[in-house]
Amino acid sequence: MKIKKSDRFYNTVQGTAVAHAKPIALAHRRVCYDLNQASPAAVAAELGMSAVDLPEYCSTGIREVDIMLFNRCMSLGQNAMATREQIETIAEWMDQHANPNWAFALGSDFHHANIDLLLNECGFTLRSGGIAHYWRDAVPVKHEVAPEITIIEAETTQESQLFSEVVGECFQMDRRMDARSANLIGRKNWHCFIAHYNGEPAGTGAMMNTGEVAWLGFGGTLPQFRGKGIQQALLKARINKACELDISGITIESAYNAGEEQPFPVSGRNIQRLGFSLSHVSENYSRNKT
């Protein structure tokens, strides 16, 4: 994939122009929208799931889940200057369809020069924390893991149930969302993996082929198996699976805690050990509390 000059974003963390931020942002919004669509209709109705995907932005909401990651407007201002009217229209939709804990998620690019001021004028403020986005070229890695670890790609109904249960436990999510995780097995463009340690389920990881970029997510390890190389093994399996596809790069995410001595969690440092480089950080703007 050739990166056009207009696709170059400004990196708020490193202060350098980066060439991969726009394809990463596009992959991220495609994943978020597809995850919203993957839920069974009954579960989507019960949890209040909604999504809208337009050329200018993508918004997703889950009214019954108080997690900002699932209640955001993404990509506003990436393709054109954002307007006050857009912000007000999005805010009205989010107020109706999302949990009150929702935000505008902004990755820095040239169009964002004044969007922070515009959001401030509309009553939205930068919040602490965000998402760190990483990039890696699609090059295989040596898949050497401890003999106690085995990785399988989930395919059967039983494996889909196991995958969803481990995901739910790893991330401590509303267990009604297990059905969404289970539905990813066999879904177009998705590959889901389960790690076992000495035969016991230990962790999960997933990959979505978004077109030109493979997105890696759902990387979780059960508490009793942490520190045993589970995520490294799952990362290697997904990287090599992605390299079998006709893609140019691989992206993955971790939390980012601005202002802290260690802004990147252990997962972020593990990610970089496997050849990923930090591309940029997307930050959250939410409504001022009254």
What does this structure look like?
This is N-acetyltransferase domain-containing protein. The chain has eight helices and 13 strands. With 290 residues, the chain is an alpha+beta fold. The longest helix is centred in the first third of the chain and has 18 residues, at 21-38. The chain starts with 8 loop residues before the first strand and ends with a strand.
Which terms would index this structure?
alpha+beta; 2 domains; two-stranded antiparallel ribbon; single chain
Strand content: 25-35%
Structural Rg: 19 Å
| Domain unit count | 2
> Major sheet, described briefly?
11 strands, mixed
The assigned structural class equals alpha+beta
Total strands: 13
Mass-distribution shape: globular
H/E series: EEHHEEEHEHEEHHEEEHEHE
Number of helices in the DSSP assignment:
8
Give the N-to-C terminal Cα separation: 46 Å
The level of helicity is: 25-40%
Mean pLDDT comes to: 88
Brief overview:
The chain has helices at residues 21-38, 41-47, 84-97, 115-121, 157-171, 178-183, 230-242, 266-273; strands at 9-10, 17-18, 49-53, 58-62, 72-74, 103-107, 124-137, 149-153, 190-197, 200-209, 213-221, 249-256, 277-287.
